[in-house]
């Protein structure tokens, strides 16, 4: 029994460390926002949803039995996501600031407030833990399903530009740690969502290995073959233009000869006139 609890603690601790690193992942993005002094081009939705998720799990962990490791990581996540949203709001344009404010109020204030009222006044004891556990589990499943849009984009474009391997790897590793933590603690609300998280994480890594070196399609090969021909046509056209500019036609030659004869005649007449005046 002691070994069982120790193993659960070990997986929970590893889950904390990996989740800690995942929470720090957006820091380069917000460094760029602070450096450029604008959040234009970035979206606040992932951070608002992450804040809502951390708040839910933190509320669940308060009432669950021996959930210290859930409290530690979700407290840190709550602090980091709040900081990210604050920085975003500070540098956001008016339109994005208004949208983010409405999203925070509707999700993190109104929705979470409603859950708190229901849990605190309509349920008690184990029923409260079960209600909060189901809410957390359903929301976590929805969050894990969200990457399907990225998976679809990768398959459609045959490019992994928007799906970095490192992030997929650490999210998969985190799902494994939290699954075993929930399994060993017999906390199905933690274990079940991470099964789906593990499956989608593995899928993303497989897609990355498949599409990391995109193959040239038939259209690309055809365009590549057409490019030399186009360059040849352009070069020939330039050469023909130069030749036609440098090679005068017969009419031009005739006009040149007539001009020369007229100039010679005028010069002879001038010389005769000068000789007459001298005499």
UniProtKB/TrEMBL annotation:
Give yes or no: UniProt keyword Transmembrane helix: yes
Q: Which UniProt keywords apply?
A: Cell membrane, Membrane, Repeat, Sugar transport, Transmembrane, Transmembrane helix, Transport
Q: Which GO terms describe its molecular function?
A: sucrose transmembrane transporter activity; sugar transmembrane transporter activity
Skewed-composition ranges (Basic and acidic residues): 256-279
Per the record, its GO cellular-component terms are: membrane; plasma membrane
Question: Pfam families this protein is in?
Answer: MtN3_slv
Q: Name one GO biological process term.
A: carbohydrate transport
Membrane topology per the entry is: Multi-pass membrane protein
Gene3D superfamilies for the chain = 1.20.1280.290
Write down the superkingdom of origin.
Eukaryota
Metal-binding as a keyword? no
Subcellular location, record wording: Cell membrane
Q: Where are the transmembrane segments?
A: 6-25, 45-63, 69-91, 103-125, 131-150, 162-184, 190-211
Q: Where is this region: Disordered?
A: 255-279
Any idea what job this protein has? Mediates both low-affinity uptake and efflux of sugar across the membrane.
Give the family from UniProt.
Belongs to the SWEET sugar transporter family.
Q: What is this protein called?
A: Bidirectional sugar transporter SWEET
Taxonomic lineage from the root: Eukaryota, Viridiplantae, Streptophyta, Embryophyta, Tracheophyta
């Amino acid at each position: 029994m002691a070994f069982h609890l120790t193993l659960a603690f070990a997986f929970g601790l590893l889950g904390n460390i990996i989740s800690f690193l995942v929470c720090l992942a957006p820091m380069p993005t917000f460094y760029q926002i602070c450096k450029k002094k604008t959040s234009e081009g970035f979206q606040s939705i992932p951070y608002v949803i992450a804040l809502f998720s951390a708040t839910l799990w933190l509320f669940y962990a308060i009432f669950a039995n021996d959930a210290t490791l859930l409290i530690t990581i979700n407290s840190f996540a709550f602090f980091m996501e709040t900081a990210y949203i604050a920085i975003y709001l500070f540098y956001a344009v008016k339109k994005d600031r208004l949208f983010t404010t409405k999203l925070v109020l509707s999700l993190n204030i109104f929705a979470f407030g409603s859950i708190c009222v229901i849990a605190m006044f309509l349920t008690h004891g184990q029923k409260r833990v079960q209600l909060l556990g189901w809410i957390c589990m359903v929301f976590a499943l929805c969050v894990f399903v969200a990457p399907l849009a990225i998976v679809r984009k990768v398959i459609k474009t045959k490019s992994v530009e928007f799906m970095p391997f490192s992030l997929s790897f650490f999210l998969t590793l985190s799902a494994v740690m939290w699954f075993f933590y929930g399994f060993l603690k017999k906390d199905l609300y933690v274990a079940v969502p991470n099964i789906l998280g593990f499956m989608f994480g593995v899928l993303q890594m497989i897609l990355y290995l498949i599409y990391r070196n995109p193959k040239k399609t038939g259209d690309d090969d055809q365009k590549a073959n057409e490019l030399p021909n186009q360059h040849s046509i352009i070069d020939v056209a330039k050469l023909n233009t130069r030749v036609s500019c440098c090679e005068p036609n017969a009419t031009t030659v005739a006009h040149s000869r007539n001009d020369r004869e007229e100039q010679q005649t005028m010069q002879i007449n001038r010389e005769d006139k000068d000789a007459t005046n001298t005499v």
